[in-house]
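name: query_chain
kind: protein
chains: 1
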Amino acid sequence: MAEADRQLLFSQQDADTLIRVWQQGNRRWLDFNDGLIQSGILLDKPDTLPLVLNRAMLAGVMFVEQPKTVLLAGTGGGSTARYFSHHFPEVVGRAVEQSEAIVTIAKSYFDFPTKGNWKIITADIVNYVQQCQQKYDLIVIDIAEGQKTPEWLINTDFLAQCRSILTKYGHISINLLAKDADEFLCYLSSIRNAFDGMTVCLSLPDHRNIVTMAYNHQPLFSAEDMASRLPILDALWGLEFSDFYRQILKDNPEGSGVI
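structure:
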């Protein structure tokens, strides 16, 4: 399908960001005019996660029980909320997004689940975490500023506050975008210090993103469980957990954290 066939459905300047929604055939996506797709939906398969990053952000569940409560920090088009609503409707979720424009887009163009157990909240995630009274099994943090992880996100106080609202075996999944290897190691060191070294990293081929997962306590499942566990998860979630685990083994030296 030629690029000329794509349609611009929405365009709005929000502070210093140009927010756009495009459609081409059965594919609709959100971008910020920076060459990167922020979120997407396949209109004929709305229950899927078309972007590998969104799928990878859920890879940490292979080491724990299925989450019952989920917090999304940074909503985008709401792909992850939509996925949970379709596949695991019993999961109670909250999506926190600072931009009112993004909240509107998620509902109007990307089928954010407005009924059932999901709610989208317009708020600053730092303030939300500080005031939060609920505990979460999974916190997914996907926030970038200028195609880079903001410094405040890996701040010791913020990470400690995130850990304080996790359940006993809860974990966070962070999309890290660093300018170079040294900066990534600095980010990772902050996360490891905040979570007593209980971390695991997942790199994505042809992506700058490195998904970093950190656990409140030592996870329930270890490498010895994966041979029997991964095929079940692949089928139940419809995600490539087995592929992610193979990459995790490459990315994480034995004894470096969860592995």
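note: The domain at 46-251 is CATH 3.40.50.150 (Rossmann fold).
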